[in-house]
Amino acid sequence: MNDTSKSISFDHVSIERGGATIISDVSVALPDQRVGIIGRNGSGKSTLVRSLNGLLPISAGSLVVHGVSSGEGAKKLARVTGFVFQNPDHQLIFPTALEELSFGLRQLGVGKADAKAQGLALLKEHGIAELAERPVHELSEGQKQLICILAVLIMEPKLVVLDEPFSSLDLRTRAALRRKLEKLDQQIIFVSHELDALSDYDKVLWIEDGRVKQLGAPVDVLAAYEEHELSGAHLHFEGVARA
Amino acid sequence: MISLYMAGNSWAHRLPARVKLLFLFVLSLLIIPFNTLWFSAALLAFVVALYATLGRRGLEKVKVVRPLLWMMVIILLVHAFLGDIEQGIIAVLRLLAMVLLANFISITTHMEALMDAVEPLFRPLRVFGISPMRMSLAVALVIRFVPVLLAVYASLQEAYKARTARSNSWRLLAPFALHAIKMTDHVSEALTARGGADGFDRS
Amino acid sequence: MSSDRSLVQIAFYAALIAALGLVPKIELGLAGGIPITAQSLGVMLAGMMLGPVRGGLAVALLLFLVALGLPFLAGGRGGIGVFYGMTAGYLAGYFFGAVAVGAIMRAMRNMNVVFGAIVSGVLGGIVVVHAFGVPVLAYKADMTLYNAFLVGSLPFIPGDLIKVALATLVAHTIARGLPSAMLSRS
User: Considering its fold, how many domains does chain B have in total?
Assistant: First the structure.
């Protein structure tokens, strides 16, 4: 289980953003296949997961993701970690789905024709070959987010991070996309406010004020989180003010 | 986004983009000394005949010059006022001919073929860090985000209308620009997350 | 500032200029209800926000897309034809105008943003744009420069002045709300 080539480990990691310390002195190892991350808005969970892809540099400590250490540079981290963002409209950078998928392969040095063929094959595999040439802005939110996920998967990352990717989707679409995620071989880090969605995960990590509040089995952590957040004393709008 | 391109397989579609562009460029220089009425009229007739070879659908594309017509009327009026209507007619005929000829290329050449055709011209720009890869990425980003920005504007209009019962205002411009600028942070983050504009080490 | 960010910013301003030419025309009460297209306002904004290099590249990128056949000029015009039409000079003027706006904005970065925006908007966004537009129109329409100015530029200058005012307002709003986006002044 503690094979570092298939695991994430934070060692006294701090992350600063615009002069403020968002993550302070986090040390945690995440060897499990599927890990959920929870916490209030502004707790630092988005910042923490961005460091996995190298999007945000860590300011102290060290981070190792599937054998790649933060010291090797952001680009090396981006190669092992795929990242799915909250809003597909900000993530899809090409006018059509096929171009979006082949872009990832082109990034890895695959030739134009090969990249197109493999992109089309992946769309077929997921039963959406007919979307290949359609303008992206005409697709539904669910279709867009699926394209985002496929655009990440086609690059064969070892770890896939999803930062609240389903927040604008309806129940049905969420369930369908979640089933697709369950089948993946990659390690999954899933940041979410929907606690139910994390109940069958291997571990849940609770972040509060830039620190690890709790790490453990979903049944324990989710219950503790819910109890903590919904108990009367904490019912104020701190999260709203911060967001 | 609808481009001017008209899908088809005519002789003009099959002609290499480079040949078409070169023809346009050379012709635009060659006609300069021939400043007579009959020549300009013949030139326009030749260009319209090119459209006609594409069939009925092709001939209809001549309509693209419609937005220019009012300005052409003004040009004619100015020349008429100065007592030299013939020069005005010549100028208008040549303008119509050259605009239509240039658009003939746009109508019969796919965007990608055009891009490939002009790519060598941009090679010297590599010195400034503008690689073909970056150019095509930038082109793709614009095509992708024009409709997104139009949707953002429409949603601002909706919010404005809900509160003022008016549907459009200069007051929307500043929030529109702010939205667009904030979006660039997210999009560039998404690009960086997948290896950035230059991709991963191609080793 | 990463190169990915620069690339995305250039592309976004190109898209913004296109979008401003395609959104419904805005009717201004103060100008007697004249509808104006906001495209050249986008050109001014590109220079004011991005500075001369990126602002100029944003306009160049837009013109490149237009040449590729995309309908991104005001009213949905596009194609190689527009570069052979009588307004081709104004398109060249958009490019040099954005560069000039950005350069003036940068030179005045230590002064009041409203002042800088007005000066750069009038000089770069109006004078430079028309300085390229008028000679080409005169040549294409076989007119004197004076006549070309009378029919091709003069009628549009009141609208252009309104656009400088609007661009200034936007620049002022962004300088207050999101100062990091004013790259011309950093």
Answer: 1
pLDDT at B203 exceeding the cut of 50? no
Report the C-alpha gap between C126 and C5 in whole angstroms: 29
Please, which residues bridge with residue A96 across strands?
A: A135
How large a percentage of chain C has pLDDT more than 70? 93
Instruction: Report pLDDT digits (tens) over C95-107.
Output: 999 999 999 999 9
Per-residue confidence (pLDDT) for residue B120, from 0 to 100: 86
Strand order, beta sheet including A159-163: A81-84, A159-163, A187-191, A34-38, A203-208, A211-216
Among A1, A55, A61, residue whose Cα is nearest residue A211: A61
Q: Please, what is the average pLDDT of chain B? A: 89
CB distance B99–C84 less than 8 Å? yes
DSSP category for residue C25: P
Count of other CB atoms within 10 angstroms of residue B28? 16
The values of phi and psi at residue A37, to 5°, are -125, 130
Alpha carbons within 13 angstroms on the beta-carbon side of residue B109 total 27
Interface of C with B in 154-173 (CB under 8 A): 166, 169-170, 173
Give me the residues paired with residue C34 across strands.
C28
Within chain C, strands assigned E span 26-28, 34-36
Decide: residue A17, CB within 10 A, 0-12 exposed, 13-18 middle, 19+ buried.
middle
Tell me which chain A residues have a C-beta less than 8 angstroms from the C-beta of B143: 95
Task: Give the strand pairing for A68-69 and A60-65.
Answer: antiparallel
Decide if B184 is inside a domain. Answer: yes
**In the B/C pair of chains, how many CB contacts fall below 8 A?**
199
Mean pLDDT of C76-83: 87
Question: A232 pLDDT band (50/70/90 cuts)?
Answer: low
Check CB contact under 8 Å for A83 and B186.
no
Hey, how many other C-beta atoms are within 10 angstroms of the C-beta on B116?
15
Residue B5 resides in a domain: no
How crowded is the C-beta side of A176, counted as CA atoms within 13 Å? 13
**pLDDT tens-digit map of B152-202:** 999 999 998 888 888 778 888 889 999 898 899 999 999 999 999 888 865
Fold of C3-185: Arp2/3 complex 21 kDa subunit ARPC3 (1.10.1760)
Q: Where are the domains of chain C?
A: 3-185
Q: Round to whole Å and give the CA distance between B119 and B127.
A: 15
Q: What is the ipTM of this complex?
A: 0.90
Whether residue B168 is contained in a domain is answered as yes
pLDDT value for A1: 45
Quick one: average pLDDT of C20-27? 77
> What confidence score (pLDDT) does residue A242 get?
46
Q: Is C11 on the interface with B (CB under 8 A)?
A: yes
Q: For residue A37, list its beta bridge partners.
A: A191, A205
Mutation for A interface: B194, B200, B201, B202, most A CBs within 10 A? B194
Closest to B134 (Cα-Cα) out of A180, C5, C74, A219? C5
Residue B192's domain comprises 11-199
Contacts of C26 in chain B (CB under 8 A): 168-170, 173
Q: What is the pLDDT of residue B101?
A: 94
> How confident is the model over A64-93, as a mean pLDDT?
93
- B149/C16 touch (CB, cutoff 8 Å), yes or no: yes
